[in-house]
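Reopening this one. Same input as before:
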Amino acid sequence: LCSVPPDKTSQQVIDVLAKRLTNLFADVVGVWSLDFEQYQANENSLSTKNVVYSLAWSDNNSKYMMYNNKDSRIVPLESADEFTSNIKDYTLRKSLKVHGQTLSLGDFIVKLSSVASGHASFTDIFIEANYKPCTNVSLCWNLLREFCTMLTESYELSVPQSVPANISDAVVFDKSQTAVQYAD
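Same output, byte for byte:
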C-alpha cells in the first residue's frame, strides 16, 4: 500500500511509478483488475461462516472464496457452492474494484493499481510485486521489500519489516496467499 500525497491523485503517482520502471527498461505487459466483495452472514443465518470474501482476478480468470474461521484467520472455502447456494443468508458489506497495469522488469512482475469502492476512490494505491524465481516468500521477502522501497522512494509505503503471519506459514507462495493479503 502506497500513500498518495495530498497534492497528487492516485493516477499521478501510478504514472510516476510506471515511468520509474520504464526508465529501467520495464515493459508494460498488460492490464488487470480485481473484484473484491465481503459478505456478512445475516443474524438468522445458520451458517458457521460469519464473513465470506470473494476475489476475482481478470488477468488469469481465477476466483477465490474465503472466510474467517474460529481463530479469525482467513482460510479458503472448500466449496464455493456452499456459499452460493446460501447467498440469501448473506448481506454484501464491502465491494472494491482494484485496477491497473502490469509491468515486467527482469525477474520482477509489478502491478500498480488504484482502488475504487462504489463511487468513491481511495487515496492509496496498491503495489503488488512478484519475484519470479522465488516461490517461498520468506526467502525473498527482504528483496521484495527493498525493491518496493526503492521504487516508491519519495512516497510513504506500508510494507511490513517481516513476512506477515497470515502468509509466513505457506511453503509455496501462490494466488491464494495474495488473496488473503487483499482480504486483510
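So the earlier flakiness isn't reproducible anymore. For the record, The chain has five helices and eight strands.
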